[in-house]
Every structure is written in C-alpha cells, then in structure tokens.
C-alpha cells in the first residue's frame, strides 16, 4: 500500500496503548492518523462511533456543517461499532486486512480504514491484539511493530479495575489474554521494540524515540512539497 510506513501498537488490554496513542495524535497532529477498527463490542460511555472519511461528503451534504466542524467531528473516532452480521459480511467480501475474536467480540482492520489515513499522507497507527500482529505479518503492510507492556500482571489488573470499563467476566478474559500476550512479547522477532509502560511520561518518551525517524522523514517530505509548491 502507498504512503508512509504504518505503525502497529499492540499489547495487553489495559497496558496503556490508547493513553499513549491519544498523546501522540494530539502532539503530532498532521503527522499520525489513527486507523479506526471495526468491532462488535458495545461502545463505552464517551466513545465515538467512527464516521469515517468515506462518509465525509454525506456528512457535509446532510448537515451543511462548515468543513472544519465536520473534520473535527471525525478526528476522535474510537471504532466503527457494527453488528456481527455486518462484520462477517465485510470479512466475507474481503474488506478486511485482518480480523480476530477477542474477549467474546470481533475486531478487524478494514482496507478502507488504512487507505483513508494513508490518502492523507499521514503515518497510519493501528491498535491491534497479538492475533492482529500475526495476521498483519502475512500482508504487505510492512509496519513498525511496537509492543506496549505493563510492569506486571498485578499492576495491569489494578489499571483495568480502576478504568471501570469491564464486567468481572470481561476483565478475567482480558487478564487471561494478557498472560499469553506478555509471554509472546518476549519472543524475539515479533516486535521491533517492547516498551514497558510503568511511568507514563518515560514510556511516551521511548515511543517518540522509536518513531523519531519516521516522524522526521514525513516532516521532511512535507517540507519539500511546501518548498516546491511555493516556488514561483
Ligand atoms: N486484531 C485486532 N485487534 C484489535 C483491533 N482493534 C482493537 N483490537 C484489540 O482488541 C483488544 C480489545 O480492545 P478494546 O475492546 O478497545 O479494549 P481495551 O484495549 O482494553 O481498551 C485490544 O487488545 C486491542 O488492541 C483490530 O482491528 N484488530
Ligand atoms: N503509566 C501509567 N500509569 C498509571 N496508569 C496508567 C498508565 N498508563 C495508562 N494508565 C491507565 O490505565 C488504564 C488503561 O490504559 P488504556 O490506555 O486504556 O489501555 P489500553 O488502551 O492498552 O487498553 C487507563 O485508565 C489509563 O488511564
């Protein structure tokens, strides 16, 4: 696929991926773009359903909102929340790069979601579980693979409980998946880098360090374009 090299963030549920990602997207607006996945799980309070840039003309037409308002409304999408039937249909139609079952729900990365980000010449960031990592390795996406890990399973459990988003059943499923994820992340060759998210600021600094080269490359490419565009 065309565009700058994507970044895959993976790691146990509750490790801090979304927290780090949101910081990165805020600090590097115009550099990174989030790939909005599909899921069959229910939205949490405050989560935004992905309207997707594919719907932009429709949104503009239907609401007659100024373009800036529409763009800001699509910038904080969490997921495309869909039914199992819709998701399965999309998978059957070959619309997904990868998909997986996690904690009783389906999740997947659509080709359109990646292309939406890449078409804006942004570095596409994907947040996927370990099955997603394995499946993406079979594609031609060629991303940088970053694993975000908690300092320990006990701390992970505390963070998940404090987040207050899970039922006891879903929490136990997440902890079970986390044990496997924590083991697999130690295997050489799966991830380019494993970051332990103990102190949030330190973890964020490490993440930025890993991504420095691709951030600089993208910014240089954008500066070149600006230079040529501004030539008389
Ligand atoms: N394979 C795959 N995993 C995904 C996708 N989107 C999210 N996930 C993973 O699904 C798991 C559960 O995500 P979520 O329900 O948002 O819970 P949270 O990670 O605890 O906030 C996490 O490990 C995510 O990385 C996707 O498109 N594909
Ligand atoms: N370094 C950290 N120290 C303490 N709490 C953290 C840290 N990183 C994240 N958290 C908190 O842990 C919880 C899980 O983080 P989150 O970003 O939702 O994880 P994930 O997206 O990997 O599921 C959130 O409530 C978040 O505020």
Entry keywords:
Rossmann fold, five-stranded parallel beta sheet, four-stranded mixed beta sheet, 9 strands, binds guanosine-5'-diphosphate
Structure description:
It is found in: Cytoplasm, Cytosol; Photoreceptor inner segment. Its EC number is 2.7.4.8. It comes from Scleropages formosus (Asian bonytongue). The chain has a single domain, classed as Rossmann fold (3-Layer(aba) Sandwich), CATH 3.40.50. It contains 9 helices and 9 strands. A hairpin with a 2-residue loop joins strand 5 and strand 6. Helix content is 47%, strand content 18%. It is an alpha/beta fold and 232 residues long. It has a 5-stranded parallel β-sheet. A 4-stranded mixed β-sheet has the order 4-3-6-5. Helix 7 packs antiparallel against helix 8. Guanosine-5'-diphosphate binds next to strand 5, strand 6 and helix 6.
CATH superfamily membership: P-loop containing nucleotide triphosphate hydrolases
Coarse structural class: alpha/beta
Please give the largest β-sheet: 5 strands, parallel
Q: Strands across the major sheet, in which order?
A: 2-7-1-8-9
Rg, please? 18 Å
Q: Name the shape in a single word.
A: globular
Low-confidence segments, ≥5 residues, pLDDT <50? 52-75
CATH class division: Alpha Beta
What is the number of strand segments? 9
Order of helices and strands: EHEEHHEHEEHEHEHHEH
Domain Guanylate kinase-like: 4-212
EC number: 2.7.4.8
InterPro entries: GK/Ca_channel_bsu, Guanylate_kin-like_dom, P-loop_NTPase
Family: Belongs to the guanylate kinase family.
């Amino acid at each position: 696929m065309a565009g700058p090299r994507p970044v895959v963030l993976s790691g146990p549920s509750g490790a801090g991926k979304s927290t780090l990602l949101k910081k990165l997207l805020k600090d590097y607006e115009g550099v990174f773009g989030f790939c909005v996945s599909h899921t069959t799980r229910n939205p949490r309070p405050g989560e935004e359903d992905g309207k997707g840039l594919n719907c932009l003309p429709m949104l503009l037409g239907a609401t007659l909102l100024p373009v800036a308002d529409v763009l800001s409304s699509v910038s904080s999408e969490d997921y495309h929340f869909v039914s199992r039937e819709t998701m399965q249909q999309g998978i059957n139609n070959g619309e997904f790069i990868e998909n997986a079952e996690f904690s009783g729900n389906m999740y997947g990365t659509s080709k359109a979601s990646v292309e939406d980000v890449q078409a804006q010449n942004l570095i596409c960031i994907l947040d996927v579980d370990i099955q997603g990592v394995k499946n993406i390795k079979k594609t031609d996406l060629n991303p940088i693979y970053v694993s975000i890990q908690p300092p320990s399973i006990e701390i992970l459990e505390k963070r998940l409980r404090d987040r207050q988003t899970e039922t006891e059943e879903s929490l136990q499923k997440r902890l079970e998946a986390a044990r496997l994820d924590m083991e697999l992340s130690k295997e050489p060759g799966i991830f380019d880098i494993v970051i332990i998210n103990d102190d949030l600021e330190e973890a964020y600094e490490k993440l930025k360090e890993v991504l420095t080269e691709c951030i600089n490359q993208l910014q240089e490419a954008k500066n070149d374009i600006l230079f040529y565009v501004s030539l008389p």
